[in-house]
């Protein structure tokens, strides 16, 4: 997603743009269906767990992938993560090396994933997954892979933001959907529902729903509580970040938004730092944005990290264990 999510994507918007853009949405949907029908799913020699969503940006896929990787490792598995490496220049397959790769090389999300588990990037997702298996993975977590039809999977988890849901229910570009809700749900095995249901959501049927929350890193929360901050972010829905700062007790005196995945120049960061100083505030951004800052500028900007916590972690573990053991087919 190139920019932040437009407001007319939200449910209840009175903007005329969704209606005007519907013909383009029909073409987008046709292209997606043709891609799905013409793509054969490839087995890669190990069970694949797909982490995906139905909307463009901001649902919480990356924190979910990290949480699942950590849970699998605690269960004695050897997971490795496969990502497209969006925003990076390397085509892959290549294993992310935190000592030498930057967001320019492998994208911002891959750097966050690699801090939790061995991570590979590649435009050819099956090839990247096979490289991970050759490197010792006994299961693969495919980040943002619900619409990656070339990769066969054992389990498909759909991430849903309980406070946003599926927006206005329309496909790109009239709305945030990558595909129709019913088609996307038909291919998922279970859902991760992040946050309380504050918008109407469809019936998920008998699929398991695992409730979760995105919580601030405790040390970051303590450090930022009571502080005046200039908050800036270049993510799918930056307002979520601003709200998180307010909820932990920081005073947000000014905000700034940037395109999702866009790099920050030294001049841009210096302007933010100088503006914050004039406001007697500190500049704060997200972990995803922090890895896109120039290396020398990172020490001038604070960060609020988040972690995904499951409401019933044992239930999640039991489900993962059973699905990886029984060899069930995703979407069954």
Automatic annotation (TrEMBL):
The organism's place on the tree of life at top rank: Bacteria
Amino-acid positions noted as binding ATP in the UniProt annotation, renumbered to this chain: 55-62
Protein name per its UniProtKB record: Tetraacyldisaccharide 4'-kinase
Family: Belongs to the LpxK family.
EC number: 2.7.1.130
Catalytic activity annotation: a lipid A disaccharide + ATP = a lipid IVA + ADP + H(+)
Function: Transfers the gamma-phosphate of ATP to the 4'-position of a tetraacyldisaccharide 1-phosphate intermediate (termed DS-1-P) to form tetraacyldisaccharide 1,4'-bis-phosphate (lipid IVA).
Enzyme class label: transferase
Pfam families recorded: LpxK
InterPro entries from the UniProt entry: LpxK, P-loop_NTPase
GO molecular function terms noted in the UniProt entry: ATP binding; lipid-A 4'-kinase activity
SUPFAM superfamilies, A to Z: P-loop containing nucleoside triphosphate hydrolases (SSF52540)
Any GO BP annotation: lipopolysaccharide core region biosynthetic process
Associated pathway: Glycolipid biosynthesis; lipid IV(A) biosynthesis; lipid IV(A) from (3R)-3-hydroxytetradecanoyl-[acyl-carrier-protein] and UDP-N-acetyl-alpha-D-glucosamine: step 6/6
Any single Gene Ontology cellular-component annotation: plasma membrane
Keywords, in A-Z order: ATP-binding, Kinase, Lipid A biosynthesis, Lipid biosynthesis, Lipid metabolism, Nucleotide-binding, Transferase
């Amino acid at each position: 997603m190139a920019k932040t999510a437009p407001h007319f994507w939200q449910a209840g918007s009175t903007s005329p743009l969704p209606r005007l853009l519907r013909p383009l949405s029909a073409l987008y949907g046709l292209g997606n269906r043709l891609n799905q029908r013409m793509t054969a799913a490839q087995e890669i020699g190990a069970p694949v767990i797909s982490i995906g969503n139905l909307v463009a940006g901001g649902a919480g896929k990356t924190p979910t992938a990290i949480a699942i990787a950590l849970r699998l490792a605690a269960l004695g598995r050897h997971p490795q993560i496969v990502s497209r490496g969006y925003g990076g220049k390397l085509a892959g397959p290549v294993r992310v090396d935190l000592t030498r790769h930057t967001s320019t090389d492998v994208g911002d999300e891959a750097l966050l994933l690699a801090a939790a588990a061995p991570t590979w990037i590649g435009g050819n997702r099956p090839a990247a997954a096979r490289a991970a298996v050759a490197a010792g993975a006994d299961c693969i977590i495919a980040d943002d892979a619900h619409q990656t039809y070339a990769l066969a999977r054992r389990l498909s988890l759909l991430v849903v933001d309980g406070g946003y849901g599926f927006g206005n229910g329309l496909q790109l570009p009239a709305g945030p959907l990558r595909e129709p809700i019913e088609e996307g749900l038909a291919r998922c095995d279970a859902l991760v529902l992040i946050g309380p249901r504050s918008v109407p959501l469809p019936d998920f049927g008998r699929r398991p729903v695992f409730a979760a929350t995105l919580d601030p890193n405790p040390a970051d929360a303590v450090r930022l509580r009571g502080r005046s901050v200039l908050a800036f972010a270049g993510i799918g829905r930056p307002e979520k970040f601003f709200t998180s700062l307010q909820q932990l007790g920081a005073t947000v005196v000014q905000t700034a938004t940037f395109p999702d995945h866009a790099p920050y120049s030294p001049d841009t960061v210096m302007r933010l730092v100088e503006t914050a100083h004039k406001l007697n505030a500190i500049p704060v951004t997200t972990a995803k944005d922090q890895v896109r800052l120039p290396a020398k500028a990172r020490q001038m900007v604070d960060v609020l990290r988040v972690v995904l916590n499951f409401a019933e972690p044992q239930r999640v573990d039991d489900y993962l264990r059973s699905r990886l053991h029984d060899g069930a087919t995703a979407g069954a």
